[in-house]
Design brief:
By secondary structure, the chain is α/β, with parallel strands linked by helices. It has 12 helices and 9 strands. The chain binds phosphoric acid mono(formamide)ester and norvaline (NVA).
């Protein structure tokens, strides 16, 4: 089994992964995989958290992760994704890949003889969304009925995965961005099959009663050429103390990081008492361990 999309795991499977995470956290489960198991980390884009948390997860589970910079591999000289997957799958037990094009990870997974994990593409960031929802569950009894608001680039990979995972577990999702700027229709429509998902251009309306306020960079990796245009487009959708005042009184602030203080979020908000971003980042390690253990059981 692969973990390419936030739609790959059912609600029950997500529950199972969260249970593994709880058991690891509470030392109830011996967190180990077959000794010397290996994971190839193929990265076309930069990463601090995802790359390191997978590497540490493998090490702490008794295996090892090997980093492959796509730029210094034969991928950079045109070797096909499928051939690369077949070869790496002959050496390693898992592949985690961060690629520009989502279609490339689909191709990688279809050729790979071993499980492939999406470590972010232009369309999705599914491991992040699991860590995010798991983090939310540490603060609320249930995700069902919670209102999770995403402010800013509502068509980003992070927004796509968050809305799909959150809606699947019964959260209400509010996407708040500039009038005329649309979320990705595939993810939006799919998430609406699971729960209430609404698009707002008014910050006060969208944030009303929300218990989680989430934001991400205005300029995702691969969009650097449009940086000025995007910063201008989203500038009114900054997560600052005024925006936060429209949310529920106890609303918590999340960001997948890296953050750009003064752009999508202000320093007082991300470094303030309602921010749970460090806990969120830390949970990536726990969730990645649970994902690896779950996939190795399949
Ligand atoms: N949140 C996240 O995926 O961070 P990195 O880009 O550092 O991996
Ligand atoms: N949306 C961001 C997420 C980074 C973890 C990006 O793709 O750059």
């Amino acid at each position: 089994m692969n973990f390419i999309s936030s739609d790959d795991f059912s609600k029950e499977q997500i529950g199972h992964i969260f249970k593994i995470s709880d058991d690891i956290k509470d030392n109830k489960q011996e967190a180990s995989i077959r000794e010397h198991s290996t994971m190839a980390l193929i990265f076309e884009k930069p990463s601090t958290r995802t790359r390191l948390s997978f590497a540490v997860a493998m090490a702490q589970l008794g295996g090892v992760a090997i980093y492959i910079d796509a730029l210094t591999s034969q991928l950079s000289r045109g070797e096909s994704i499928a051939d690369t997957a077949r070869v790496i799958g002959g050496y390693c037990d898992f592949i985690a890949a961060r690629l520009y094009r989502h279609a490339d990870i689909v191709e990688l997974a279809s050729a790979s003889p071993v499980p492939v994990i999406n470590a972010l593409t232009d369309l999705e960031h599914p491991t992040q969304a699991l860590a995010d929802i798991y983090t939310i569950m540490q603060h609320f009894d249930s995700v069902k009925g919670l209102k999770i608001a995403f402010l800013g680039d509502v068509a980003s990979n992070t927004a796509n995965s968050l809305m799909l995972t959150g809606a699947k577990l019964g959260a209400e999702i509010a996407l708040i961005g500039p009038a005329g700027y649309q979320p990705n229709s595939v993810y939006f429509n799919r998430a609406r099959e699971y729960s209430k998902v609404h698009l707002y251009s008014s910050i006060s309306e969208g944030l009303e009663d929300s218990q989680i306020v989430y934001t991400d960079t205005f300029v995702s990796m691969g969009q650097e050429a449009e940086a000025d245009k995007r910063k201008k487009l989203f500038s009114q959708y900054q997560l600052n103390s005024k925006a936060l005042s429209y949310a529920s009184e106890k609303a918590l602030v999340m960001h997948c990081l890296p953050a750009h203080r003064g752009e999508e979020i202000t320093a007082d908000v991300i470094d303030g008492t309602r921010s749970i971003v460090w806990e969120q980042a830390k949970n990536k390690l726990l969730i990645n361990k649970a994902i690896i253990l779950y996939l190795s059981e399949m």
